[in-house]
Each structure stands twice: as C-alpha cells, then as structure tokens.
Amino acid sequence: MGISSLQAILSAFAEERDWAQFHTPKNLVMALSGEVGELAAEFQWLTSEQAAQVMEDPERAEAVRQELADVFSYLLRLADVLDVDLEEALRAKVAINETRYPADRARGNALKYTAHQRGT
Amino acid sequence: MGISSLQAILSAFAEERDWAQFHTPKNLVMALSGEVGELAAEFQWLTSEQAAQVMEDPERAEAVRQELADVFSYLLRLADVLDVDLEEALRAKVAINETRYPADRARGNALKYTAHQRGT
Amino acid sequence: MGISSLQAILSAFAEERDWAQFHTPKNLVMALSGEVGELAAEFQWLTSEQAAQVMEDPERAEAVRQELADVFSYLLRLADVLDVDLEEALRAKVAINETRYPADRARGNALKYTAHQRGT
Amino acid sequence: MGISSLQAILSAFAEERDWAQFHTPKNLVMALSGEVGELAAEFQWLTSEQAAQVMEDPERAEAVRQELADVFSYLLRLADVLDVDLEEALRAKVAINETRYPADRARGNALKYTAHQRGT
Question: Could you tell me the residue ranges of all domains in chain B?
C-alpha cells in the first residue's frame, strides 16, 4: 500500500473526530517536534550498545514502534495538508545529494559528512 | 513504489559513501531532531495565514519540500536500522487510537484531543 | 542567584543519585530535544489567541512552568558538562547579532529576520 | 548578572528591530525547537568519545557555544513573554523531583531514571 493510502486513513481518522481544524501546518510541525522529542526520550539514556539492542526488549520495542508511528503519522498529515508528494520530494532530494556528495569523494569522510549535514 | 524500496535507495546511498557506520539508532534520532528543527525554522515566524499559503511562494515551497524529504529520509533510515515496518506500525497505532478516541465521543472535543496528545 | 549556583544544585541532584554517568553531551542534547518536544506539545493545538492566554489557566500554566524548568535544567547541565559559560556565550552571540542585523536596517523587516534565522 | 538582566538585553534587541511582534509563545517554542535541532546537528555524527572532547576543537567549540546561546536566548524570551520566573520554576521542579526520586532509592538505578524521564 502506498503513501497516499496511508494519508487517506489518517485524513479520515481526523475528519471523523472533527480534528482536521487543528491540523494547520504550524500545528502539525509542532506536533511532529513533540513526537520526535518522545522518540528521543526512548533513547536518551541508553548507551550506544543498549540502543542497538533496544528492539530485543519487548516493552521498549513496543514503545519505539509507537513513537515511530506517531512521527510518521504527523509527517504524512503535514505533507498531505501542504500537498507535497513525499516520495517525489525524497527522490528529488536524493538526486541533489548525489551531485553534492559524489560517492568517490565522500567515501568514509566524516568531515565531509558533517559539512553535508550543516549544509542541508 | 513502497516504503521498503525507498529505504533500499537510502541504504545504498549510505553504503556507497561508507556512511552506514554513522547510522546508529541514537545518531539517527538526533539527525531526525535536527531536520525537524530545520522544518520548524521554515514556519516559525509565519502567521497562521502565511503558513497556510507557504507553498505558493516557489522559494519557500522548495525549502519546505527539501526539509520534508530530509525528515522522511532519516525516519526511513531509522526504521530500517531498527527493523521496524513503518506501515505496520502506523496501522497498529491507528487501531489503538480508534479504541482510545471513539469517533462519537471525541468529536470536536479539543480538550479530549489535547489529553490524547499528552497520552501518546 | 546566578546561573552557576543553579548548576551546582542540579549537579548535586545528579551526583546524589549516581546519575551523572548518564549525563554525557549526546545524552543531554537528546534529553533537551525531548523536553522541548514536551513543551511544544503544550502549545501545539492552541490557536495564537489561546497560546497568548495559556498562563491564565492554572493547570496549563503549571504544566508550562514545569516544561520550561525541564528545558532549562538540561540546558544548564549540558553547559556545565561542556564547561561553557552560558551568560558569556549569550553576550557574545548578541554582539555578533548586533553587527549582523543593524537595528536601522533590520527594523520591521520580516524577510531579513527570516534570513537571520536561516543563517544562525 | 541575573536572568532578568539577560532578558532585558534580549527584549531591547527585539524592540529595536521591531521584531517583538514575531515573538508570540507558539513562534518562540518553534524557534526553540529549531535551535535545539541545530545543537543536535553539532553532535549527531560524533561518537561518545568525540562528543566528550568537542570543546577541544576551536571551530566546533565556537559552533557549540553559539548554538547553546541561541537555545538559551529563545528560552529566556519565551519565559519573559509568558511571565514565568525561570529560576523559581527550576527550584520548584527540583523540589518535586526530590520527592519523586528519593536519593537513597534512585541511586544508580537506570530503570527508575528512565521511568522518571517518561513521567516528566
């Protein structure tokens, strides 16, 4: 099932509760910040090793899955409200990054990688 | 094209640059926070009215599309690294929310909606 | 009471619980993201008008005060761990911004303001 | 110099540029999210070891100081606009946490610590 079908489910969910009125771009961006914050809270005190194994603990795994779902749902809603095709936007950005960071020059280059991150 | 195909593109992009070593769960969560922060920066000084029309300005629209793509790409990478099926997780969360906020009781109820947000 | 005295209180609180081991820079940045996310959650569904009056509702006001305190406490801890003087850093940044945005040219200029935000 | 003096500097800076009109609670919360995102970006690809030594690299150290200053400045502005006394709020929250996590029971207990974080 594609992204637009998932957006249709979320849109119907909001409409049925008369919640679409709250789903303005600014509000959805704030909700997305909130959910990413909750996702960060699941990982913040874990060591790198504990974080790598977080899905082996059933309770933590369920919490992580739910937070990922919350982040995804607000991202889908926001793209829907802004009428942005997420898949197309992703492909376009990958094409930009292919040019910006040619594989042969960027290979294993953490500094270039960091510069990349600052530049996005 | 489905979510897993997009994840394959992103995974190949990282592998070709030897960047997969940086893509630990904690690092990806931080990168996701960073990109959501950049998305917030696109909207922070706009009024509600300006935010609703942001896609009518070509330069701002392009910036928003790129930030949405960046958020989506780190969410896809994180789910991939954690081996979480995003679509399945989203459907499971919607099912939970269907039970938690029955449409007939939640309708137009901002307070319930806020409580919902605190509870997630 | 100054900033360093507040940092001493928070440091002692962590030490007494043997929690200082968790307070690495990366972990504290994630905790800060988490708390800012919770703060965003308090405001996300409010209209501009409701947000401007949020402190008139005793329950919401208390929630906002606690979230502001949580954000402040992790910011203080992070600066302490990194040995950054927050007041000095703030004054230095204001000096940079005074040069970057001369008052006579920046006045009432939302575009310049937005550019300012993108540049920081 | 106390917190309110720093807030007075920031308030004057905004007034001189006619930018106070943009400093509504929702906008400032979004700006805070944006700056915390930029702070996260400074740390996201560093290992724990690299992050612990980040202040030894002059260029990175300066970037971190500026991001900390940006986060602090929006937190101060937000508290000012909401008329919240940050120091008082912090002390009140520490008092709550003293009761919630008695030192003798919370000592070295990461699980309790995580529960603490979820509960805040």
Answer: 1-84, 85-120
